[in-house]
Amino acid sequence: MTMTTTSASRFARFTRARGNARFAVLSILAVGLLGAGIWFGFFRDATTADADRPLTAPLARGPLRITVLESGNLDSLRSHKVVNVVEGKTAIDYVIPEGTVLTEDDVKNKTVLLRLNSASLEERRVKQEIEVSAARDGHANAVTALEIQYQQSASDLRKADLTVRFARLDLQRYVGKVFAGQLLEVAEDATAVPEGGTDAGADTKVPAVARKAGIASAVRRLISSLLESEGLEGESLQRIRLLTSDIRLADEEHRRAAEKLKHSVRLEAKGYVSREDLEADKLGLERREIEQQRSRTAREQYVSYDFPKDVEKLLSDVLEAYDQRSRTKKTSAAAEAQKQSAVTARSKQLKLKQRRLESFEAQAESCIFYATKPGLVVYASSGSGHWRGNDDRIHEGASVRQGQSLITIPDPTSLGVVIKVHETAIDKVRVGLEASIEVDAAPGERFRGRVAEVARLPDSADRWLNPDLKVYTTKIQLQGDNPDLKPGMSAQVEILVTTLDNVLAAPVQAIAGTADKPVVYVWEDGEPKRRSVVLGLASEHLVELKSGVEVGERLLLDPPRETRLDQTEPEHGAPVKDKPTGQPGNRRKGRPAGGTKRPGYGGKKRGSRDGAGAKSAPKGEAAGAPKSEASPPAPKRAKRANRGGAKPAQPNGSTGTTR
Question: Beta-strand (E) ranges in 104-233?
């Protein structure tokens, strides 16, 4: 089969492409093999050189600066914040561009920084005005009702007083003032409640139920003893006198009728009086006898029944009038209290609605924010993240909630650095310590500062991301005038804790052993010899040696690997037969063998940034020296397997692996 011209050209292009690709692959392999050979030869030479000539450092006395290193951002320590006070959610109609520099003229001319939509707020304000008007009318009606109740109470009390007065007058008119007073006194004494009993009112000592139980017997005893006494007065005395006179008159008429009948009998016997006249005289005598019996019965009935009944009734009317007046007072007081409560409730409701209206009016005025001080306009949402779609960015048309920060105007005269200090170093930091600051925007220039504020509690902003992270917000006040620095710039802060003079200091990578038994290796007579030492304070790269070594001795920067961290310590100055296995040439400057890790930072390496953006400092160095001179803090892991052997313990109590 023959190929067409088009097919032949396509095959030629494909063949050339395959050849070019094969050549490129072979070229890459050749370059890789050449580089591997060069790297292997260099590594072998470096290892051999390090093995023949171990890295050492001489011991000398000198000053040792103890510092805390952290990273942060420039920020104004005193800022004016524009906060939304409008209830609910409100849209932004206008906002000044971010980064605008406000001047004194802007403050004088009241430049508008931000304006919120106030349409819905105005509608709520009008509705609230209607509610305030209705509440004011309700309060006025309640006050009027209270005044009417006061008048009604006074009228009822006057009626009750008149009833009491008339009842007493009726009793006094019937029995006299003396006898009426005695009756009231006996009734009150007979029905008095023992100490601790219930008071019936202001004018009576006992309730009505108790009076009804004891009043009858007491009054009867008094009536029986005073009925014939001279103290009885009034209508009852007049009635008794009238009944007594009726008895005497009936007796006299009866006597006369009897005399007349005797005379008529004698005259009838002589014939001077007819039989009919005699019968009429007999009938008159019988009538006088009946009248005599009636008058006696009437007096007896009055004394035995009508008089006690009338006295008890009049006395009961007086006591009932007292009770009625007491009930009237209590009823009036209750009604007045109810009306007063209504007035108080209406008054509070009116004040509440008025305050609500004032709040709406104040919110309406707060929809427009004016410039009140010069400075740089920074949106409150700048630099903040937006998690799961929660967009709080400030822009025209955005909805903002009550209490949300809208704009921040930093005070340029209070510029500082906000850092987060790890809990291992927070005990060293205190207000007033001097600090040195390097700003990324001004390389090579150092600024002076001072610790202005240290938080008492750890920052909880990102704790839910890393519950084990405990950092404390610390503010560093910049000193002097720094017009070129602006909020938001990145900066590194070195806080000077203290300065030790004339001390022995060794590189931190020269420390081995365990946390409670640190050791160093001295290069002597061509062999490393193990020495026990006592550690002091530590900086970022150096640690103080209090005892165990002398000036001029050379310490191995790559101490031999410990096969057992709890092995028996050799005698002082005894040579160590183990050959160092580390590769000092492959470690970064200022790091211990294998690189220390900082507890509490999830194994972050020295110099790395923590979850809060702060640069971590190792425990036992600037971020935390050993807590006692006798022994440093205990390590979190005493042993760590690494290819069949344990790494030497570092001065901060952690173990590392050779890099």
Answer: 112-116
Strand partners of residue 271: none
pTM: 0.50
Here the tokens at position 444 are: 């090579």
The SS3 of residue 396 is coil
Q: What is the 3-state secondary structure (H, E, C) of 16-34?
A: HHHHHHHHHHHHHHHHHHH
What is the rounded CA–CA span in Å between residue 182 and residue 590?
A: 115
**Burial bucket for residue 82 (CB in 10 Å: 0-12, 13-18, 19+):** buried
CA dihedral of residues 550, 551, 557, 562 (deg, nearest 10): 0
Q: What are phi and psi of 575, to 5 degrees?
A: -70, 150
Residue 185, SS3 per DSSP: helix
Q: How many CB atoms lie within 10 A of CB 124?
A: 18
User: Helix, strand, or coil here: 430?
Assistant: coil
If you ran DSSP here, which 8-state letter would residue 486 be given?
-
- Give the C-alpha separation, 456 to 459, whole Å: 9
For residue 237, name the pLDDT band (cuts at 50, 70, 90): confident
- Closest CA relative to residue 596, chosen from 519, 508, 522: 508
Higher pLDDT, 486 or 386: 486
Candidate from 7-16, 171-180, 249-258 with smallest mean pLDDT: 7-16
Euclidean distance between CA atoms 95 and 377, whole angstroms: 10
Could you give the CA distance from residue 386 to residue 394 in angstroms, rounded to a whole number? Answer: 12
Average pLDDT over residues 92-109: 91
Report how far residue 110's alpha carbon sits from residue 379's, in angstroms, rounded to the nearest whole number.
19
| Whether 226 contacts 175, CB under 8 Å | no
**Distance from C-alpha of 202 to C-alpha of 569, rounded to nearest angstrom:** 101
**Three-class SS state of 405:** strand
More confident residue, 147 or 12: 147
Rounded to the nearest 10°, the torsion over CA 139, 142, 147, 150 is: -140
Could you tell me the pLDDT band of residue 138, with boundaries at 50, 70 and 90? Answer: very high
Residue at token pair 């004088």: 108
DSSP for residue 654: -
Q: Could you write out the three-class secondary structure of 137-173?
A: HHHHHHHHHHHHHHHHHHHHHHHHHHHHHHHHHHHHH
Contact 422, 623 (CB under 8 A): yes
- The rounded Cα 3 to chain-centroid distance in angstroms is 91
* Percentage helix, strand, coil for the chain under 3-state DSSP, each rounded to 5: 45, 20, 35
In terms of average pLDDT, the best of 177-186, 470-479, 540-549 is 470-479
302-325 mean pLDDT: 87
Interacting residues of 543 by C-beta distance below 8 A, sequence separation 6+: 505, 506, 507, 508, 511, 535, 536, 537, 620, 621, 625, 651
Q: Which long-range contacts (CB under 8 A, 24 or more apart) does 28-33 make?
A: none
CB 594 within 8 A of CB 647: yes
The amino acid sitting at 30 is A
